[in-house]
Amino acid sequence: MSNLRSSLTMRRLGLVALFATTLALAACGSEGIPAEQLGSSAKFAQVASANLEFDYDPLTPKQVVEIADLVVLGEVVGLREGLSASVSVEASQPLTAAELADVNQDLPEGDKISEEDLLEAGREVRLQTTRLRLEVREVLSGDKSVEGTIIEVDVYRAPTTNFETIKATEFRGEALFILEENSGWDPGPGYEFKNRPDGPLWIPFSDGAWFTDTDGSAIGVFASTEDLADEWNKPETVSHIADAIRGAR
């Protein structure tokens, strides 16, 4: 099974176990869908984190200010297909039968993956993201010039999760992201990218993607508030997380 750091430049220890599969993806966004057809941040977090495993050292508020390239608070206003990275079959390590069975045990019967599904035109997908559009209300750390603008944040999802599944969870609401800029990432020979942005490639840290849930509590994509370092003082809301970062500046 192939492994990739949760931060693409590997400046932290967030390890993501990614599964290879074939995916036919449509790169599209939809910011004008009716409110009754929107999903929720909780559903997005559940689907985005499916079949991803993390092992990371939690950041303290002080480390966030020192290490992150950008920390922003704002409103999610849409999503679209993000980055996809694939490698040629000759340069890749295929899944074993046991690894494929492990992936399939969590999938509905109609979505189970065969060995033939793993290959698409001689390539295996190793990484893919969902690109969230964020209207930045406040820059908590980093470049203040993005305040009042819309930036795009790439959130990991497993190659077993297709875009139509994640698109059905599309939501609007408050979010806080602790980000690294990874546009210079080069995983090595044999890799090809789809939807690589011309500008910055913003990727959240493992404990750096937070949304306000319908009950007002903070919900993380790849971490829970219980996983945070003691220095956060048990935050319950996105506002509490933001206040801790402001206090560490």
Alpha-carbon distance between the two ends: 40 Å
The outline comes out as globular
Number of domains: 1
Structural class: alpha+beta
- In which range does the helix fraction lie? 10-25%
Helix count, per DSSP? 5
| Uncertain stretches of 5 or more adjacent residues | 1-30
Q: Secondary-structure element order, as H and E?
A: EEHEHEHEEHEEEEH
Mean pLDDT: 82
Oligomer: single chain
Largest sheet: 7 strands, antiparallel
How many individual β-strands? 10
Strand content: 25-35%
Fold and architecture overview:
By secondary structure, the chain is of the alpha+beta class. It has one domain. The protein is built from 5 helices and 10 strands, in the order E-E-H-E-H-E-H-E-E-H-E-E-E-E-H. Strands 4, 5, 6, 7, 8, 9 and 10 form a 7-stranded antiparallel sheet that branches. It has a 3-stranded antiparallel sheet with strand order 1-2-3, with no helix packed on it. A hairpin with a 5-residue loop joins strand 9 and strand 10. The relative contact order is 0.25.
